[in-house]
Amino acid sequence: MNEPADTRFALIGNKPALDFANTVHARRQDVDALQSACDLFDLLEHLALAPADTLTRYRKVAAADTAGAGDLLKQALAFRREVRKWLDAGLDFPSPSHVLLKMVNRLLAANASYEALQHKGTQWSIESVPLEKTLLLSLAPIARSVAELIAEGPQAPVRKCGNPRCPLYFYDTSRNQKRRWCSMESCGNQAKVRSFLKRHGHVHAAE
Ligand SMILES: [Zn+2]
């Protein structure tokens, strides 16, 4: 909340599932970008995955129930670990592990809702009310995106940044599907500088 929209999260994944997996590395520092439940709500906000009034409600609930917020963070990190394990396993997209499958389906189920007539001001409206009342509901849209990637299967153009030290993944939407870097400004540029120095004899071949 205390940083402008684009400074903390890399947001180069083109899919919420990958932007979520990429939170292991904040945009400008080598730190975890998910350090609290509020960080997760900020991510949802940047990705437009939840309406403003829902986010306000999540933040209020998290502020009043710190144990619940702590539990949500724990569950989010465990979920992220499983998603990354699946991504790290290789780009031929093996079947998701039993643990990941259970997590995704549990979170998809959290998204179930029913309709109810509600009175707002002077008007009645038919509103969609979530069945799940806990903060876990906030992870449902991320789980939906993970489920879509798993369902898309091996043809999904998911790639890891070409810098072996960079942990970021992206869904390659470039026209010829030859995107190599998380971003040209960071890893792409570093690679360009390295190859320039190498050509000019400033870097040993081993590097
Ligand atoms: Zn990179």
Task: Record keyword descriptors for this entry.
two-stranded antiparallel sheet, 4 strands, binds zinc ion, mainly alpha, 207 residues, single chain, two-stranded antiparallel ribbon
Question: Mind explaining what this structure looks like?
Answer:
There is one protein chain. The chain has helices spanning 16-21, 37-46, 52-64, 66-88, 98-110, 140-152, 184-199; strands at 113-120, 123-130, 158-160, 169-171. It is mainly alpha-helical and 207 residues long. The chain is elongated, with a radius of gyration of 20 Å. The model has no long low-confidence stretch (mean pLDDT 89). The structure holds zinc ion. Residues 161, 163, 166, 168, 181-182, 186-187 line the site of zinc ion.
Say how many strands there are. Answer: 4
Which ligands does the model contain, each kind named once? zinc ion
Q: Could you estimate the helical fraction of the residues in percent? A: 40-55%
Radius of gyration: 20 Å
Ends: how far apart?
A: 40 Å
Structural class: mainly alpha
**On the 0-100 scale, what is the average pLDDT?**
89
Query: Strand order across the biggest sheet?
Result: 1-2
User: Would you list the SSEs in sequence order as H and E?
Assistant: HHHHHEEHEEH
Strand content is 5-15%
Main sheet characteristics: 2 strands, antiparallel
| Low-pLDDT runs | none
Number of helices: 7
Principal-axes geometry comes out as elongated
